Amino acid sequence: MRTELSLLAAAVVIAVGGFVAPDWLSFLLTLAFAKALVVLGVVVQMRMGLVTFGQALFYALGGYAAGMAMQHLGVRDAFVLLGIGVVVSAGFAAICGLLLARYRDIFFAMLTMALSMVLFGVLVKSSALGSTDGFNVSLPTYLGWEPSPESAKGVIFLLTVAVSAVAAIAFHRLLKSGLGLIAEAVRENEVRVEYLGISPRSAIYANYIFAAGISALGGGLTALATGHIDPDMAVWTTSGEFVFIAILGGTGHVAAPFVAAIVFAAVRTFAIQESPHTWQLTLGAVLLILIIFLPKGLWSLVSKRRKQTTETPVSNTAKVNA
């Protein structure tokens, strides 16, 4: 409960800060939070000992499903569009998961990347979906209310913060649930899990579908925020970016992906601004330094601080007793 209240408080502070922050900062945070949702899907699988290089598959499915529903079905409500993206992605994951749940290690990673690249190839070759250029997405409505063009970006920012808060709380509860505890047990020893009468494949299958749904939310929010969708959402380098952010933040807390996504977006924006021709080198160097000195991720700084705070009163009590 304490963690959930902290997440809600942080969401309120960020939402209020969005009203006074410059537009570029609100937009940066919107995209960072949307990508953090996809990273949550990556972390779900990392906690089971599985690394996916194809999470961009569901990121793209969420975005394209929302965009196509708006363009071809005339659906404009943001909540319905996001829901369509989640349903499409979860349904696709339910089919693919039947195969992927059988594999582990590098085989799982390569198969997920292969599925993502299949979608990338289909999108690139499909002229009806704009081929390599993609297509634009109009501004959505919200339960019948249509904001003005000037306030549309701010509304999407608030929507992204709200969805991120709900998703973070759901993710936290998942980790504390039986399925979340089984996931860690599967990572440590699948054989012992089977001796308990629990199927590791079923646990992996369920987590894979959850990861797909939460990643689709990130793709749908990105499409609504940028107003554009293109096949690069499904390319393998996008999946690699999500894995990189997951490693950068660590898996120790539900807030870690959001902190890492913000740091990643800020560093990349600064690198592009200061060295537009060598920004990849600057970005890589900075992030490499962070990973070398913080191998357990950025959240390890918070964990270490909490550990020191907890140990200090214990040490003082021991000295008094002595």
Strand-helix topology:
Elements: H1 2-20, H2 23-46, H3 56-72, H4 78-100, H5 105-125, E1 135-136, H6 149-176, H7 178-188, H8 190-195, H9 200-226, E2 228-229, H10 236-249, H11 256-274, H12 279-293, H13 299-321
Antiparallel strand pairs: 1-2
Radius of gyration equals: 20 Å
In which order are the strands of the major sheet placed? 1-2
How many separate structural domains? 1
Tally of strands: 2
InterPro entries: ABC_transp_permease, LivM-like
Organism: Paucimonas lemoignei
Main location: membrane
Protein name: Amino acid/amide ABC transporter membrane protein 2 (HAAT family)
What does this structure look like?
The protein is mostly helical and 322 residues long. It has one domain (2-255): ABC transporter involved in vitamin B12 uptake, BtuC (Orthogonal Bundle), CATH 1.10.3470. Helices cover 77% and strands 1% of the residues. Strands 1-2 form a two-stranded antiparallel sheet. The longest helix is centred in the middle third of the chain and has 28 residues, at 149-176. The radius of gyration is 20 Å and the shape is globular.
Offer a concise description of the structure:
With 322 residues, this protein is mainly alpha-helical. It has 13 helices and 2 strands; from the N terminus they run αααααβααααβαααα.
